[in-house]
Amino acid sequence: MTILVTGATGNLGRLVIASLLERGADPQSIVAGARDVAKAADLGVRVARLDYAEPATIAAALDGVDSVLLISGSEVGQRTAQHRAVIDAAADAGVTKFVYTSAPKATTSDLVLAPEHKATEELIAASGLPSVILRNNWYTENYAADLSRASETGVLAAGAGSGRVASASRKDFADAAAVVLLEDGHLGQVYELGGDVAWSYDDLAAAIAEISGREVVYHSLTPDEQREGLLAAGLDEGTAGFVVALDAGIASGALGDTDGTLSRLIGRPTTPLVDGLRAIA
């Protein structure tokens, strides 16, 4: 079996490859797909140039590949087309396992990030590829900037209200991807993956306080207050609106569900919030 990991030089991609190797995968059975192959030289596996904008590179990277992990792209607004290029090439290549990192409840969620994931899941279904969908909740590492800012100011300000987030570390999600890629029996599954504990922003403030050694208070902002603060900090209108919409989704409960699926897949508890934050402090 040969596995292609797209986005292999990103934070998640690197961890997936490391997890595959930890689980005994032959380095020669792993292909790291990267737009800049020089950045993949330290991964210890085979490397192939893969640029979503150049279909020939995708087809070449898929040569001899049985399984694909499509790690969702980071270019919001362009991802559906980028993902389609990989899906089409994988279908043409006869890939027998296609794994995609999606978003929580992607087909029904109001989360601002959900539509591109929904569209990608629909493309995968239409392609006929034997697939596994990994609907990853938030990465704890997403809160690195909040950790830094609140550690300095003693204030965690956000528009998430009383919403909860079932985050886990990237390593947890990477381990789940590796398990699904290496094991039989997962085809056709849609896994909703989240941390064992859905925490509130008061919990986040307490975790930051524990790490920083100072009192940290959560200030819940209205959408207008949050937008004004972001604009005053130098963000453009579009970016500020995007952040406000993300927090509104959290406030409405878009990231608050967890049923233990992630910990069952990886065979251990997920990384607690404070431990995940401490690792990036």
Summarize the structure.
It contains eleven helices and eleven strands. The protein has 281 residues and is an alpha/beta fold.
Number of helical runs? 11
Quaternary state reads single chain
CATH architecture of the largest domain: 3-Layer(aba) Sandwich
- Describe the sheet with the most strands: 7 strands, parallel
Would you tell me the overall average pLDDT? 96
Give the helix proportion (percent range): 40-55%
Please provide the ordered H/E string of secondary-structure elements: EHEEHEHEHEHEEHEEHEHHHH
Tell me the name of the CATH class of the largest domain. Alpha Beta
The tally of structural domains comes to: 2
Here the CATH topology of the largest domain equals Rossmann fold
Question: What ranges have pLDDT less than 50 throughout 5 or more consecutive residues?
Answer: none
| Structural class designation | alpha/beta
Strand composition percent: 15-25%
N/C terminus separation: 38 Å
Shape: globular
Tell me the CATH superfamily of the largest domain. Answer: NAD(P)-binding Rossmann-like Domain
Count every beta strand, where a strand is a DSSP E run of 2 or more residues.
Answer: 11
Keywords: Oxidoreductase
EC number: 1.6.5.2
Domain NAD(P)-binding: 7-181
Organism: Microbacterium foliorum
